Amino acid sequence: MKVLKFGGTSVGTPQRMKDVAKLINDGEKKIVVLSAMSGTTNTLVEISDYFYKKNVDGANEIINQLANKYRKHVEELYATDEFKTLTKDFLREKFEYLHAFSKDMFTLYEERMVLAQGEILSTNMVTNYLKEQGVNVVLLDALEFMRTDKNSEPDPVYIRKHLKEQIEANPNADIYITQGFICRNAYGEIDNLQRGGSDYTASLIGAAILADEIQIWTDIDGMHNNDPRFVDHTEPVRQLHFEEAAELAYFGAKILHPTCVQPAKYAGIPVRLKNTMDPQAPGTTISNETEHGKIKAVAAKDNITAIKIKSSRMLLAHGFLRKVFEIFEQYQTSIDMISTSEVGVSMSIDNTKHLNDILNELKKYGTVTVDNDMCIICVVGDLTWDNVGFETLATEAMKNIPVRMISYGGSNYNISFLVKGEDKTRALQALTDTLFKK
Ligand code: ADP
Ligand code: ASP
Ligand code: MG
């Protein structure tokens, strides 16, 4: 069985929902994971913000606006009064549920319940539409099987067991629909897999049922060789190794949530990125295969802070790096890039929550300098060290851009540059012009 995930824009309007319904109704049994309609999760975040600020009128106004929008969707989506009424009743109940949060204290716990509604709305709407079309569809409640443990990591054993039970309880369905993003945590509370986490849901489900394939359907023809939001003339990459995809997702290629690669990789299940607006387009296949001698793509990660610690005592001092890393560990801050010399070490981080504490500790061991608003530019491809010339190509492309750090050799798949945030677009464009010119 395949798992197909459709993102926010793919279910963003009633027409798009109809297109998705047509696409998935091809006689093959499958599990379909849906995001909230695009914009809905952001609106739910805004509603929560008003509740946090105890501005009940503000929250209620936005809830009413959202409810009106959804009521219009219902008129457009369904042909029969039966399904219009059925869905309107369901929506009324959900919007009343949202209004009711004005009566309680509002904490993170309530916010997660609010944020979960986007996927609950979209999956019910699409399921009802498929039922109206006479399709044999069953809605599986993700809150019944998608679960995280005490470390907020997905619990694969629980997920496999409970998902299996749900599927076995409905053995004759042709299409199973379920919600992306939402889950319960170790305490049974409603929680989520972080923004953009529907990709992760699809991958976890794929691994749980040992799917033939996991398909991530979005609004673009697969992974492009550079970020199309900033660079002209980007092109789809047809094949990526899991590691290459993981690097690109982690370093900013928004098409894929960074956590989504791992479950598929461990289960050895290929992931395909497909375009809902152009279903015939080949998209990108992510698998265990490496294409030799090719630079595949470039991505960028913003809001990076570089920290340098220089110490004359570092000379020949074993244990120095351990001390430095322990400080980052103590403040639960992970390091993205690192580069060392005999007298100092530079590191980059993206989580600055504990920056001041970290700097205070580091100052005990040497002279510390910080650069804010930096950006990691990550070049991904077959960059094994005995493959001559590829790192030179990447550095050559960056020849007019001030580079703060370079990291190469950490994996066989990437070389990363740390540059100023303001140089990001220029650097990305220079890399495209040099690496992918025809
Ligand atoms: P969805 O709502 O379907 O999850 P996202 O907005 O999360 O979709 O991801 C798709 C978007 O990712 C594209 O519209 C594109 O703007 C952006 N994107 C960023 N980098 C890349 C890349 N390298 N290749 C393709 N898309 C990218
Ligand atoms: N709806 C959620 C979000 O907007 C999850 C997702 O779309 O992947 O973040
Ligand atoms: Mg996404």
Which hetero compounds are present in the coordinates? adenosine-5'-diphosphate, aspartic acid, magnesium ion
What's the SSE pattern? EHEHHHHHEHEEEHEEHHEEEHEEHEHEEH
Given helix and strand content, the structural type is alpha/beta
Radius of gyration: 24 Å
- In order across it, which strands form the biggest sheet? 3-4-2-1-7-9-10-8
List the helices and strands and how they pair.
Elements: E1 2-6, H1 14-24, E2 30-34, H2 40-52, H3 56-77, H4 81-99, H5 108-115, H6 117-132, E3 137-140, H7 156-169, E4 175-179, E5 182-184, E6 190-192, H8 198-208, E7 213-218, E8 239-241, H9 242-250, H10 261-267, E9 271-275, E10 284-287, E11 295-310, H11 320-330, E12 335-340, E13 344-349, H12 355-362, E14 367-381, H13 390-397, E15 403-408, E16 414-420, H14 424-435
Parallel strand pairs: 1-2, 1-7, 2-4, 3-4, 7-9, 8-10
Antiparallel strand pairs: 5-6, 9-10, 11-13, 11-14, 12-13, 14-16, 15-16
Helix pairs in contact: 1-3, 2-3, 2-5, 3-4, 4-6, 7-8, 8-10, 9-10, 13-14
The structure holds adenosine-5'-diphosphate, aspartic acid and magnesium ion.
